[in-house]
Amino acid sequence: MDQPSAPVVRKIIHIDMDAFYASVEQRDNPEYRGKPIVVGGSPEGRGGVVATASYEARKFGVKSAMSSKKAQQLCPQAIFIRPRFAVYKEVSNHIREIFSRYTDLIEPLSLDEAFLDVTSDKAGIGSAIDIAKAIKAAIKAELQLTASAGVSVNKFVAKTASDMNKPDGLTFIGPSSIGTFMEKLPVEKFFGVGKVTAGKMKSLHLFTGADLKKLPEQELVRHFGKPGRFYYQIVRGIDNRRVQPDRETKSVGAEDTFAFDLTTLEEMNPELEKLSVIVSKRLEKNEIKGRTITVKIKYADFKQITRGTSLATAVNDADAIARVSKSLLAATFEENQRVRLLGVSLSNFKEPDLKRSAKDPSVLLLFPE
Protein backbone atom coordinates (compact mmCIF):
# COMPACT_ATOMS: atom_id res chain seq x y z
CA MET A 1 0.00 0.00 0.00
CA ASP A 2 1.41 3.35 -1.03
CA GLN A 3 2.28 5.73 1.77
CA PRO A 4 0.79 9.24 1.53
CA SER A 5 3.31 11.68 0.15
CA ALA A 6 4.69 14.35 2.46
CA PRO A 7 3.30 17.85 1.91
CA VAL A 8 5.45 20.07 -0.29
CA VAL A 9 7.42 22.65 1.67
CA ARG A 10 7.16 25.88 -0.25
CA LYS A 11 10.01 28.29 -0.84
CA ILE A 12 8.63 31.83 -0.63
CA ILE A 13 10.53 35.08 -1.11
CA HIS A 14 9.15 38.51 -0.25
CA ILE A 15 11.03 41.34 -1.99
CA ASP A 16 10.52 44.87 -0.67
CA MET A 17 12.31 47.80 -2.29
CA ASP A 18 14.04 50.15 0.14
CA ALA A 19 12.37 53.59 0.35
CA PHE A 20 11.43 53.04 -3.29
CA TYR A 21 10.21 56.42 -4.54
CA ALA A 22 12.81 58.34 -2.53
CA SER A 23 15.61 56.02 -3.65
CA VAL A 24 14.67 56.52 -7.31
CA GLU A 25 14.73 60.30 -6.79
CA GLN A 26 18.14 60.13 -5.11
CA ARG A 27 19.44 57.90 -7.88
CA ASP A 28 18.29 60.27 -10.61
CA ASN A 29 19.19 63.49 -8.79
CA PRO A 30 22.68 63.43 -7.22
CA GLU A 31 21.94 66.64 -5.29
CA TYR A 32 19.39 64.70 -3.21
CA ARG A 33 21.77 61.95 -2.12
CA GLY A 34 22.45 61.82 1.60
CA LYS A 35 19.66 64.32 2.26
CA PRO A 36 16.23 63.88 3.89
CA ILE A 37 13.81 63.46 0.98
CA VAL A 38 10.02 63.34 1.29
CA VAL A 39 8.10 62.23 -1.79
CA GLY A 40 4.48 63.43 -1.92
CA GLY A 41 2.62 66.22 -0.20
CA SER A 42 3.77 69.71 0.65
CA PRO A 43 3.90 71.50 4.00
CA GLU A 44 2.35 74.57 2.36
CA GLY A 45 -0.91 74.95 0.48
CA ARG A 46 -3.15 71.88 0.48
CA GLY A 47 -0.66 69.82 2.45
CA GLY A 48 -1.18 66.14 1.81
CA VAL A 49 0.53 63.03 3.10
CA VAL A 50 3.95 61.45 2.75
CA ALA A 51 4.13 58.73 0.10
CA THR A 52 7.72 57.69 0.90
CA ALA A 53 10.56 59.15 2.94
CA SER A 54 14.28 58.54 2.46
CA TYR A 55 16.18 56.86 5.28
CA GLU A 56 17.77 60.21 6.09
CA ALA A 57 14.26 61.59 6.78
CA ARG A 58 13.14 58.46 8.61
CA LYS A 59 15.83 59.05 11.23
CA PHE A 60 13.72 62.03 12.32
CA GLY A 61 10.55 59.92 12.60
CA VAL A 62 9.07 60.76 9.18
CA LYS A 63 6.89 57.89 7.92
CA SER A 64 4.64 57.01 4.99
CA ALA A 65 1.01 58.25 5.30
CA MET A 66 2.10 60.94 7.78
CA SER A 67 0.80 64.44 7.11
CA SER A 68 3.25 66.72 5.34
CA LYS A 69 2.99 69.31 8.09
CA LYS A 70 3.88 66.73 10.71
CA ALA A 71 6.81 65.57 8.58
CA GLN A 72 8.14 69.13 8.34
CA GLN A 73 7.78 69.61 12.08
CA LEU A 74 9.86 66.50 12.69
CA CYS A 75 12.39 67.31 9.96
CA PRO A 76 12.42 71.03 9.05
CA GLN A 77 15.25 70.50 6.55
CA ALA A 78 13.29 67.88 4.58
CA ILE A 79 13.11 68.35 0.80
CA PHE A 80 9.60 67.73 -0.54
CA ILE A 81 9.36 66.28 -4.06
CA ARG A 82 6.39 65.69 -6.32
CA PRO A 83 6.09 61.98 -7.19
CA ARG A 84 6.90 60.80 -10.73
CA PHE A 85 4.66 57.76 -10.97
CA ALA A 86 5.43 57.08 -14.63
CA VAL A 87 9.12 56.69 -13.74
CA TYR A 88 8.36 54.48 -10.72
CA LYS A 89 6.14 52.30 -12.89
CA GLU A 90 8.90 51.88 -15.47
CA VAL A 91 11.38 50.87 -12.76
CA SER A 92 8.80 48.50 -11.26
CA ASN A 93 8.35 46.80 -14.64
CA HIS A 94 12.11 46.23 -14.85
CA ILE A 95 12.10 44.72 -11.36
CA ARG A 96 9.23 42.44 -12.37
CA GLU A 97 11.26 41.31 -15.38
CA ILE A 98 14.11 40.37 -13.06
CA PHE A 99 11.68 38.32 -10.93
CA SER A 100 10.41 36.51 -14.03
CA ARG A 101 13.90 35.14 -14.75
CA TYR A 102 13.42 32.84 -11.76
CA THR A 103 9.67 32.15 -11.49
CA ASP A 104 6.31 32.87 -13.06
CA LEU A 105 4.61 32.69 -9.65
CA ILE A 106 4.81 36.40 -8.82
CA GLU A 107 2.21 38.18 -6.69
CA PRO A 108 2.74 41.96 -6.75
CA LEU A 109 1.44 43.84 -3.71
CA SER A 110 2.34 47.26 -5.09
CA LEU A 111 4.95 48.83 -7.35
CA ASP A 112 7.70 48.15 -4.83
CA GLU A 113 7.00 44.74 -3.28
CA ALA A 114 5.98 41.24 -4.29
CA PHE A 115 5.82 37.62 -3.23
CA LEU A 116 7.65 35.00 -5.29
CA ASP A 117 7.12 31.24 -5.08
CA VAL A 118 10.44 29.65 -6.09
CA THR A 119 9.64 26.11 -4.94
CA SER A 120 10.43 25.10 -8.52
CA ASP A 121 12.59 27.84 -9.99
CA LYS A 122 13.15 28.35 -13.70
CA ALA A 123 16.92 28.69 -13.37
CA GLY A 124 17.28 25.39 -11.51
CA ILE A 125 19.15 27.03 -8.63
CA GLY A 126 17.23 25.21 -5.92
CA SER A 127 18.19 27.45 -2.99
CA ALA A 128 15.68 30.22 -2.25
CA ILE A 129 18.41 32.12 -0.41
CA ASP A 130 20.67 32.04 -3.47
CA ILE A 131 17.77 33.17 -5.68
CA ALA A 132 17.05 36.10 -3.33
CA LYS A 133 20.76 37.05 -3.44
CA ALA A 134 20.73 36.90 -7.24
CA ILE A 135 17.61 39.08 -7.47
CA LYS A 136 19.05 41.66 -5.08
CA ALA A 137 22.32 41.72 -7.02
CA ALA A 138 20.52 42.19 -10.36
CA ILE A 139 18.40 45.05 -8.98
CA LYS A 140 21.54 46.77 -7.69
CA ALA A 141 23.54 46.23 -10.88
CA GLU A 142 20.82 47.08 -13.39
CA LEU A 143 18.86 49.76 -11.52
CA GLN A 144 21.31 51.09 -8.91
CA LEU A 145 18.69 50.46 -6.21
CA THR A 146 18.57 48.21 -3.18
CA ALA A 147 15.92 45.76 -2.01
CA SER A 148 15.39 43.75 1.15
CA ALA A 149 14.33 40.13 1.02
CA GLY A 150 12.62 37.73 3.39
CA VAL A 151 12.83 33.98 2.74
CA SER A 152 10.69 31.34 4.42
CA VAL A 153 8.11 28.60 3.85
CA ASN A 154 5.02 30.85 3.78
CA LYS A 155 3.94 34.36 2.90
CA PHE A 156 3.41 35.75 6.38
CA VAL A 157 6.82 34.78 7.72
CA ALA A 158 8.60 35.82 4.51
CA LYS A 159 6.97 39.26 4.57
CA THR A 160 7.82 39.73 8.24
CA ALA A 161 11.40 38.60 7.60
CA SER A 162 11.93 41.13 4.79
CA ASP A 163 11.45 43.95 7.30
CA MET A 164 13.93 42.59 9.84
CA ASN A 165 17.17 43.93 8.38
CA LYS A 166 16.43 46.96 6.22
CA PRO A 167 17.85 48.44 4.09
CA ASP A 168 19.56 46.02 1.70
CA GLY A 169 18.89 43.07 4.00
CA LEU A 170 18.25 39.38 3.52
CA THR A 171 16.68 37.34 6.31
CA PHE A 172 15.97 33.60 6.20
CA ILE A 173 13.63 31.98 8.69
CA GLY A 174 13.60 28.22 8.22
CA PRO A 175 10.92 25.77 9.38
CA SER A 176 12.75 24.86 12.59
CA SER A 177 13.09 28.53 13.57
CA ILE A 178 9.54 29.73 12.89
CA GLY A 179 8.13 28.74 16.29
CA THR A 180 10.77 30.62 18.26
CA PHE A 181 10.65 33.57 15.87
CA MET A 182 6.88 33.97 16.16
CA GLU A 183 6.94 33.68 19.95
CA LYS A 184 9.48 36.51 20.26
CA LEU A 185 7.74 38.76 17.71
CA PRO A 186 6.06 41.86 19.25
CA VAL A 187 2.33 41.96 18.46
CA GLU A 188 2.67 45.27 16.60
CA LYS A 189 4.97 43.51 14.11
CA PHE A 190 2.26 41.04 13.11
CA PHE A 191 1.05 41.85 9.58
CA GLY A 192 -2.54 43.10 9.82
CA VAL A 193 -2.25 44.28 13.42
CA GLY A 194 -2.61 48.04 13.45
CA LYS A 195 -2.14 50.52 16.28
CA VAL A 196 -5.66 50.10 17.64
CA THR A 197 -5.56 46.29 17.68
CA ALA A 198 -2.04 46.30 19.11
CA GLY A 199 -3.24 48.64 21.85
CA LYS A 200 -6.13 46.33 22.65
CA MET A 201 -3.79 43.34 22.76
CA LYS A 202 -1.47 45.11 25.16
CA SER A 203 -4.41 46.07 27.38
CA LEU A 204 -5.04 42.32 27.65
CA HIS A 205 -1.35 41.80 28.53
CA LEU A 206 -0.61 40.33 25.12
CA PHE A 207 2.76 41.75 24.14
CA THR A 208 4.39 39.02 22.05
CA GLY A 209 3.55 35.99 19.96
CA ALA A 210 4.24 33.83 23.02
CA ASP A 211 1.47 35.68 24.89
CA LEU A 212 -0.97 35.22 22.00
CA LYS A 213 -0.09 31.55 21.79
CA LYS A 214 -1.34 30.96 25.33
CA LEU A 215 -4.93 31.84 24.37
CA PRO A 216 -7.28 29.27 22.81
CA GLU A 217 -8.76 30.09 19.43
CA GLN A 218 -12.23 30.72 20.88
CA GLU A 219 -10.89 33.37 23.24
CA LEU A 220 -9.00 35.16 20.47
CA VAL A 221 -12.19 35.21 18.39
CA ARG A 222 -14.14 36.53 21.38
CA HIS A 223 -11.72 39.44 21.77
CA PHE A 224 -10.92 40.19 18.12
CA GLY A 225 -13.70 38.66 16.00
CA LYS A 226 -12.82 36.73 12.83
CA PRO A 227 -9.21 38.00 12.77
CA GLY A 228 -8.75 36.03 16.00
CA ARG A 229 -8.70 32.82 13.93
CA PHE A 230 -6.00 34.32 11.74
CA TYR A 231 -3.90 35.28 14.79
CA TYR A 232 -4.30 31.76 16.20
CA GLN A 233 -2.90 30.24 12.99
CA ILE A 234 -0.19 32.80 12.32
CA VAL A 235 1.34 32.71 15.78
CA ARG A 236 1.92 29.01 15.12
CA GLY A 237 3.55 29.78 11.78
CA ILE A 238 0.62 28.38 9.80
CA ASP A 239 -0.18 30.24 6.57
CA ASN A 240 -1.48 28.16 3.68
CA ARG A 241 -2.15 31.05 1.32
CA ARG A 242 -0.64 30.50 -2.11
CA VAL A 243 1.25 33.06 -4.14
CA GLN A 244 -1.35 34.34 -6.61
CA PRO A 245 0.07 35.55 -9.93
CA ASP A 246 -1.65 38.54 -11.56
CA ARG A 247 -3.70 39.21 -8.47
CA GLU A 248 -6.41 41.69 -9.39
CA THR A 249 -6.93 44.61 -7.07
CA LYS A 250 -10.59 44.67 -6.04
CA SER A 251 -10.58 47.80 -3.92
CA VAL A 252 -8.27 50.42 -2.42
CA GLY A 253 -9.14 52.03 0.87
CA ALA A 254 -8.12 53.49 4.21
CA GLU A 255 -9.80 53.77 7.59
CA ASP A 256 -9.10 55.17 11.03
CA THR A 257 -10.38 54.49 14.54
CA PHE A 258 -10.52 57.63 16.65
CA ALA A 259 -9.27 58.14 20.19
CA PHE A 260 -12.60 59.81 21.00
CA ASP A 261 -16.00 59.30 19.40
CA LEU A 262 -16.95 61.93 16.83
CA THR A 263 -20.42 63.43 17.07
CA THR A 264 -20.69 66.15 14.41
CA LEU A 265 -20.14 66.41 10.67
CA GLU A 266 -17.75 69.29 11.39
CA GLU A 267 -15.52 66.78 13.21
CA MET A 268 -15.96 63.97 10.69
CA ASN A 269 -15.50 65.80 7.40
CA PRO A 270 -11.81 66.66 8.00
CA GLU A 271 -11.19 62.99 8.82
CA LEU A 272 -12.78 61.98 5.53
CA GLU A 273 -10.52 64.47 3.75
CA LYS A 274 -7.42 62.91 5.34
CA LEU A 275 -8.57 59.41 4.39
CA SER A 276 -9.34 60.56 0.85
CA VAL A 277 -5.79 61.86 0.44
CA ILE A 278 -4.36 58.52 1.60
CA VAL A 279 -6.64 56.59 -0.78
CA SER A 280 -5.76 58.95 -3.63
CA LYS A 281 -2.03 58.38 -3.07
CA ARG A 282 -2.53 54.62 -3.07
CA LEU A 283 -4.54 54.77 -6.29
CA GLU A 284 -1.89 56.93 -7.95
CA LYS A 285 0.84 54.58 -6.73
CA ASN A 286 -0.88 51.68 -8.50
CA GLU A 287 -1.92 53.84 -11.48
CA ILE A 288 -5.61 52.99 -11.19
CA LYS A 289 -8.88 54.87 -10.88
CA GLY A 290 -12.19 53.72 -9.43
CA ARG A 291 -15.84 54.48 -10.13
CA THR A 292 -17.46 53.24 -6.91
CA ILE A 293 -16.81 55.19 -3.71
CA THR A 294 -17.80 53.60 -0.41
CA VAL A 295 -17.86 55.07 3.08
CA LYS A 296 -17.63 52.78 6.11
CA ILE A 297 -19.07 53.99 9.42
CA LYS A 298 -18.68 52.22 12.75
CA TYR A 299 -20.61 53.60 15.70
CA ALA A 300 -19.75 53.60 19.39
CA ASP A 301 -21.97 50.54 19.92
CA PHE A 302 -19.89 48.77 17.19
CA LYS A 303 -22.78 48.78 14.75
CA GLN A 304 -21.31 49.14 11.28
CA ILE A 305 -22.79 50.33 7.98
CA THR A 306 -21.45 51.10 4.52
CA ARG A 307 -22.82 53.53 1.95
CA GLY A 308 -21.61 53.75 -1.63
CA THR A 309 -22.29 55.27 -5.01
CA SER A 310 -20.94 54.77 -8.54
CA LEU A 311 -19.78 57.62 -10.74
CA ALA A 312 -20.01 58.00 -14.50
CA THR A 313 -16.22 58.21 -14.81
CA ALA A 314 -13.39 56.74 -12.78
CA VAL A 315 -11.50 59.05 -10.41
CA ASN A 316 -8.43 58.97 -8.21
CA ASP A 317 -8.06 62.60 -7.07
CA ALA A 318 -8.49 63.38 -3.38
CA ASP A 319 -10.93 66.28 -3.87
CA ALA A 320 -13.45 64.18 -5.80
CA ILE A 321 -13.16 61.27 -3.37
CA ALA A 322 -13.63 63.58 -0.37
CA ARG A 323 -16.57 65.41 -1.93
CA VAL A 324 -18.49 62.20 -2.62
CA SER A 325 -17.53 60.65 0.72
CA LYS A 326 -18.81 63.65 2.65
CA SER A 327 -22.10 63.60 0.76
CA LEU A 328 -22.54 59.88 1.51
CA LEU A 329 -21.86 60.50 5.18
CA ALA A 330 -24.21 63.50 5.34
CA ALA A 331 -27.02 61.44 3.81
CA THR A 332 -26.82 58.91 6.65
CA PHE A 333 -25.98 61.22 9.54
CA GLU A 334 -28.40 61.78 12.40
CA GLU A 335 -28.00 63.89 15.50
CA ASN A 336 -26.60 62.26 18.65
CA GLN A 337 -24.74 59.56 16.71
CA ARG A 338 -21.30 58.72 18.06
CA VAL A 339 -18.84 57.51 15.44
CA ARG A 340 -15.67 55.61 16.41
CA LEU A 341 -14.38 54.69 12.95
CA LEU A 342 -14.57 56.03 9.40
CA GLY A 343 -13.30 54.42 6.23
CA VAL A 344 -13.16 55.38 2.55
CA SER A 345 -12.56 52.99 -0.34
CA LEU A 346 -12.70 52.91 -4.13
CA SER A 347 -13.55 49.92 -6.28
CA ASN A 348 -15.00 49.13 -9.70
CA PHE A 349 -11.82 49.96 -11.58
CA LYS A 350 -13.20 49.16 -15.03
CA GLU A 351 -14.73 51.92 -17.10
CA PRO A 352 -18.40 51.43 -18.04
CA ASP A 353 -19.27 50.24 -21.52
CA LEU A 354 -20.32 53.61 -22.90
CA LYS A 355 -22.31 54.00 -26.10
CA ARG A 356 -22.87 57.06 -28.23
CA SER A 357 -26.28 58.58 -28.69
CA ALA A 358 -27.88 57.95 -32.10
CA LYS A 359 -29.40 61.42 -31.89
CA ASP A 360 -26.13 63.15 -31.07
CA PRO A 361 -22.90 61.11 -31.55
CA SER A 362 -20.97 63.58 -29.41
CA VAL A 363 -22.97 62.43 -26.36
CA LEU A 364 -21.86 59.33 -24.42
CA LEU A 365 -24.61 57.33 -22.72
CA LEU A 366 -24.44 55.45 -19.44
CA PHE A 367 -27.80 53.82 -20.16
CA PRO A 368 -29.55 52.88 -23.43
CA GLU A 369 -31.82 55.48 -25.02
UniProtKB/TrEMBL annotation:
Entry keyword Transcription regulation: no
Enzyme class: transferase
Transmembrane segments: none
Cofactor(s) the record lists: Mg(2+)
Cofactor note: Binds 2 magnesium ions per subunit.
Protein name: DNA polymerase IV
Species per Swiss-Prot/TrEMBL record: Hufsiella ginkgonis
Catalytic activity: DNA(n) + a 2'-deoxyribonucleoside 5'-triphosphate = DNA(n+1) + diphosphate
Subunit annotation: Monomer.
GO CC field: cytosol
Cellular compartment(s): Cytoplasm
Major localisation: cytoplasm
